[in-house]
Write a structure and sequence with these properties.
Elements: H1 16-28, H2 32-48, H3 59-70, H4 111-121, H5 126-147, H6 153-163, H7 183-196
Helix pairs in contact: 1-2, 2-3, 4-5
Length: 200
């Protein structure tokens, strides 16, 4: 069996091996007019593979650049656009650095501690209380998604106290928001009821 993984590496994999085979064939055509006609047919196929990009400025010019690159600049034709030489080895994008450090409570992620830090930095007043309340509600939602049987306000208050090193305190009865089930479960239940509804 001749697997693609055993064949020569494609210079532009996004166009596929069939297009690359056409480009390789076009290079071997001796008659110049026939070679140019073949090149235009290949460009039409390449363009049809990405119809959403047809309105992009200089889209046709980029296609001809790609065709020349795929032929290793051996395709001898009169190009309708000036050809820009591309690098042989296209550079990969830089690796995205992820924040380091352990997450104490993974079900809260990284945003909750940041929100609590902001709340702790605010002076006491309505704005601080409102941010603390919104953060506590979000923490309750996160706990519901993780394990709805282990959700209670005392635990959330304890976690807030730990994160803020005692600077923030959730008063008893302040988190008076209840959730019967996680949001995604609510949607599934509603969908299931509609689906099971029969018409007589």
């Amino acid at each position: 069996m001749n697997y693609n993984t055993q064949r020569e590496k494609l210079p532009m994999p996004e166009y596929g091996r069939a297009v690359q085979d056409m480009v390789d064939y076009a290079v071997t055509i001796e008659d110049r007019k026939e070679r140019e006609s073949c090149a235009r047919s290949i460009i039409a196929i390449m363009g049809s593979m990405f119809p959403a990009l047809r309105d992009v400025p200089d889209f046709q010019g980029k296609l001809w650049d790609h065709l020349a690159f795929m032929s290793d600049y051996k395709l001898d034709i009169d190009y309708p656009y000036p050809i820009t030489k591309l690098e042989k080895e296209r550079q990969l994008p830089d690796t995205i650095s992820y924040p380091a450090g352990d997450i104490r409570f993974r079900h809260y992620g990284r945003i909750i501690p940041e929100m609590l830090d902001v709340a702790a930095s605010l002076p006491e007043g309505p704005e601080r209380n409102q941010l603390l309340h919104l953060t506590a509600v979000q923490m309750k939602k996160d706990l519901m998604l993780w394990n709805k049987e282990m959700v209670d306000d005392a635990r959330i208050a304890s976690d807030i106290d730990w994160y803020s090193k005692g600077k923030l305190r959730l008063q008893e009865g302040e988190l008076d928001v209840t959730f019967s089930s996680a949001p995604h479960q609510q949607r599934q239940q509603q969908y299931g009821k509609k689906k099971n509804k029969r018409r007589y």
